[in-house]
Task: inverse folding
C-alpha cells in the first residue's frame, strides 16, 4: 500500500485501483495528478473534522455523483466509485476513485484519482448515490467506459455529434457536461441502472438537493458538512 502527497492532496494507491501512469514530454514516467482549476475542485483532505453521521451512510461498491461547493457560479460535478470491501482490511468504505473533468492550461482533460477518505474533503457538499455496482463485471470495465467519454467541446461534438454549449470562459465546455455524458455511457454499457431516468434527470435531482438554484449565493458559505443521499 502506497501513499503519495501531491499539491496538498493525499493520494492512496492500491493494487486494484492504481492511477494511470503516463509518459511526459521528457519520456519519464509520471503519475497523472493535475492541480485544480477554477472549475475543478477535486476532493482534498484536512486533518481535523467534526463527526458527521452522514459518513456512515456511504456504501462500498457504489457509484456516487459528487457536488463540490461553488467557487464562482456553479457546483463542480464528478463521479466517485467507492472501493469494494477487502477481507481483513481496515480500509473504510469512504475510500474510492474519483473521476472528473478538469480545465488545465486552457484545455480539458479527465483526471482519475484514488481517494483514501472522501469524507475528509473540505469542499465536498453532496454525495448522491446513483447505483450499487456489481464488481464481478470487473472495475476496469467502469474505468475503460469513463475514459472513452469525450472531454472538451470539440472532442464531444466530433465523438458524440452533439452541439455543446458549456461555459464560454472555459472553452465552451464544463464538468457538468462530462458527468452527464459519463452516466449515459455507463448506462448504455449496462454497467449501471438509472431506473428508467435520463442522466440529465438524475443530475438535476442531485443538483436540487445540493443547495439554492443560484449557486453564487453560496460561494464562500459554510454548508454544515457533507450530505449523503442514499
Result:
Amino acid at each position: 500500500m502506497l501513499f503519495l502527497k501531491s499539491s496538498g492532496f493525499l493520494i492512496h494507491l492500491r493494487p486494484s485501483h492504481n492511477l494511470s501512469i503516463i509518459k511526459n514530454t521528457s519520456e519519464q514516467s509520471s503519475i497523472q495528478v493535475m492541480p485544480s482549476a477554477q472549475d475543478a475542485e477535486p476532493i482534498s483532505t484536512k486533518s481535523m473534522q467534526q463527526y458527521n453521521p452522514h459518513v456512515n451512510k456511504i456504501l462500498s461498491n457504489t457509484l456516487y455523483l459528487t457536488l463540490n461547493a461553488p467557487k464562482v457560479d456553479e457546483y463542480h460535478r464528478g463521479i466517485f466509485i467507492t472501493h469494494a470491501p477487502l477481507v481483513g482490511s481496515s480500509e473504510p468504505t469512504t475510500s474510492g476513485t474519483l473521476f472528473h473533468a478538469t480545465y488545465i492550461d486552457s484545455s480539458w482533460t479527465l483526471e482519475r484519482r484514488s481517494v483514501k477518505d472522501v469524507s475528509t474533503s473540505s469542499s465536498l457538499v453532496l454525495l448522491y448515490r446513483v447505483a450499487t455496482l456489481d464488481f464481478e463485471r470487473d472495475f476496469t470495465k467502469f474505468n475503460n467506459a469513463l475514459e472513452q467519454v469525450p472531454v472538451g467541446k470539440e472532442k464531444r461534438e466530433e465523438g458524440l455529434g452533439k452541439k455543446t454549449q458549456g461555459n464560454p470562459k472555459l472553452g465552451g465546455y464544463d464538468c457538468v457536461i462530462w458527468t452527464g455524458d459519463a452516466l449515459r455511457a455507463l448506462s448504455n454499457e449496462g454497467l449501471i441502472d438509472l431506473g428508467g431516468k435520463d442522466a440529465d434527470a438524475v443530475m438535476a435531482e442531485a443538483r436540487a438537493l445540493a443547495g439554492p438554484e443560484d449557486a453564487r449565493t453560496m460561494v464562500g458559505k459554510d454548508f454544515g458538512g457533507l450530505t449523503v443521499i442514499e
Summary: The chain has one domain: 37-229. Residues 37-229 form one domain. Residues 26 and 32 are 15 Å apart (CA to CA).
